[in-house]
Amino acid sequence: MSNKKQKMNGIILIILLLLVFPLHSIIAETGQNQFAPIMIIDQAQEDGPFDQTFHSNIMLAQGFTPTKTPLTKIELKINKPRKTTDGIFVSIREELNGSDLVSQIINAEDIPFFTHWIEIDLTDIDITAGETYYIIVLTSTSSEAPYRWMFNYSEDTDPYENGSFYRSTDLGETWFPIETEFDFVDAAFRTYTYKTNVDMVCEGFLNWTANVSQNESDPIQLTGSFTIENQGTPFSRLNWEIVHWPGWGSWEFSQKNETNLTPEDGPTMVFVNVEGPRSNLPDIYRGEIIIKNVDNENDTCYIDARLETPKHKDDSSWFSLFFDIVDSLFPPFKTYWNLFSMFFQ
Q: Taking residues 311-333, what's their average pLDDT?
């Protein structure tokens, strides 16, 4: 087979592949998988040799103190000793008798008999690291067919130092710690968050054209904008800063930095005002704006900037003709002339 025929067959094969698997769909699928959130355990007390009953007359709560945000999922070690048609209502609160930040109902048929870790997939919520929150459990099942939340007990060592186990017998009006001054008691639980991944994305291109003439003395006024967005894991925090911009002209930004930009905030629009270089000669200026992730020196994005100052269409003076001739014979002339203009403008 000749090389020409092989090349033709290769081209046909590539075309067929692109028709079946469009390039943009391949890129989109790759991009979606690139930053898929990874769940990790943030807080946990996993030992539960003992059990605490809860039913229609008893509510239970376990405090925890997160180190990360968001809260995405929890797991509770629950014992179901008897058949019941009533499920479990689980919620997260900032205060024991406060309102629910998020809640979920676990149906009775989804809770197996005997002791198991029960997964509660919550709607992601933004929580504050270092603040205490509470896992609340309640059910309408009777005391003859209760659920049991497994817990750990010790007279010497606190099983979980960043929270306590509570009980209420009046539908949450008042709460009492289960532990006493002589022992420590904590329920078996796990809280999950995402492995934080900040993904800074900048979009925009500053491209200007401004006519100049030999007799023009007013500065060139330019405006534009670009966006900065955090496309990372939910509720991740991006702290960004503009660290560089072109040396030509005088640049002003609506903001040069921002803290705690989350994906939920959407893109931040940065507006730019530039007083262009004071030069009456045609030229093309290029440069870039550099934005850095303050918390990751390797995470940087760039916005290209370009200004073209062609001759004014009515400018046909002998000076411009002379400039063009000299510039073609001696290219560095333009650079020297711009420096000269800066000192004598």
A: 58
